[in-house]
Amino acid sequence: SVEVSSKDPTQIHIVASSADSAKKIKEFIEKNYAGVLQVLEQEGNALDVRYYDSRIRQYKKQVIEQAIEVIRNRIDAFGVAEPSISAQGEDRILVQLPGLKDAAQAKALINRTAKLNFRGVVEKPSQTELVKMIREAEKKGGYALGKNGMTYDKYIKRLNEDLKDKLPPHTMIVFEKLENAVKMEDGKRPYLIETESDLTGAELEDASVGQDEYGKPRVNFRFSVEGRRKFAALTDKYKGGRLAIVLDNVVKSAPTVRKKIDSSAAVIDLGGVRDYDSAFKEAKFIATALRAGALPAKLQQLEERTVGPSLGAESIAKGERAGLIGSLLVLVFMLLYYRTLGVVADLALLFNILLILAALTSLGATLTLPGVAGIVLTVGMAVDANVIIFERIKEELRKGVGIRAAVQEGFSRAFSAIFDSNITTAAACIILMYFGTGPVRGFAVTLLCGIITSMFTAIFVSRAMVETLVGTFGVKKLV
User: Fold this and answer.
1) Cis preceding linkage at 370, omega within 30
2) Which parts of the chain sit beneath pLDDT 50?
3) pLDDT value, residue 80
4) From 58, 115, 164, 253, which residue has the greatest number of CB atoms within 10 Å?
């Protein structure tokens, strides 16, 4: 018999039935937990064991990472626009939720325990048939993920209820977010999984990123003794098929089971052809998601701040004032410098702002301060294309070319310069969207919308107005 006690969470005091048993425990620790536990002292049948400092730091980092992953899953399900979730120090997480109306529901959602399951994938009906069934159910019921505020949890509950008579017993439909999708509604892949497996994240001890024999990243994870038994039975049952790793009813990975795995340690090979960095990021993501199934620490809310109507109204007023002053300065400058063409540029600019707001509204974006900054920057940049075109028209007029030919040459010859300058800015925005999160991504989305709309208004709208003035109204002088 062994008695284990601990007053310090980093140390363990073990009292064995005899000195010989204590010696065997020491040998077992040194053999199986080298680098994790350190035997400080053995006196008779008593052992003092302590975790290494490096292991404690690593564990704290893992706790923060998996807690962030769980919270991010909750926020995605809640449908909040532009969330910002980041680690603060060694033991705190900062969560910022712009556009949130129900703070109580969000807190309840975040604090709910993450649920990890290992489920066998049912291959019949096929994914193609599933997609067809899902579309028919959505069309008949008049609902869709993200439509009218429908969250992911509500969506799969409604969908499975509608299709329960068409699905095999003890199965349900869940989804995997596509690789290039930002949110689940942007792109998802359906899976039909069985629901009777009892292997969960509770039996998972650890998950980390490793390398296979070719140096490619893969996910290593380890089960408890009971988890090993369940995992062996599950892999034997679905040998030749696929096993889905499901976190909060979202499929994180669905690898093929080649043979029965009767071991406490197992791996997930990512497969496919991809570069090392993207494979490593995916492996790290899956490992974090796996660890998130059984949170080792309870989340405790330390502080809550809400931007109320007064502060929000003040921020909105300042943002509107800044945008209005900047826009007026641009409008006045274009009007004074280019005269008739300035009127065209001003009308195109106003139309451009309307298009940006329409695009952001259609995307369901919450206009935060970075978004406002993106719009203000777009206003300043929107007239660049018009300036290039107008200067080209003036240059043609100075050569003695007729006004109609000057307009045609100005727009056609300026296109390459406009396209080159905007495509480089758009590339920077795409990189910010891909690697950035929260406010950075919000700024990039707004600016990218502005680039697209400004190119449209400068090349097509401005040209239509100028050609109408020259051709229909017979204007002889533009500048």
Assistant:
1) no
2) 1, 78-80, 273, 294, 310-311
3) 46
4) 253
* Greatest C-alpha distance within the chain: 108
pLDDT of residue 273: 45
Residue type, 256: T
Looking at residue 310, what is its pLDDT?
Answer: 47
Element (H, E) at 210: strand 204-211
Q: How many CB atoms lie within 10 A of CB 455?
A: 20
Ramachandran region, residue 270 (left: φ > 0; alpha: ψ -120 to 50; beta: rest): alpha
Q: CA 75, CA 369: separation in Å to the nearest integer?
A: 20
> How far, in Å, CA of 239 to CA of 256, rounded?
8
Structure tokens given for 54:
């490096």
The confidence score (pLDDT) of residue 109 equals 58
Q: How many residues does the chain have?
A: 479
| Structure confidence at residue 57 (pLDDT) | 82
Pairing of strands 116-120, 243-247: antiparallel
CA–CA separation, 235 and 231 (whole Å): 6
Tokens of 116: 């990890």
The owner of tokens 């096993």 is 243
pLDDT confidence of residue 113? 53
User: How many H helices and E strands in the chain?
Assistant: 13, 14
Tokens linked to 230 = 């369940």
In the block, which residue shows the tokens 């889905």? 244
Grouping H, G, I as helix, E, B as strand and the rest as coil, residue 469 is helix
The answer to whether the CB of 159 falls within 8 A of the CB of 134 is yes
pTM: 0.43
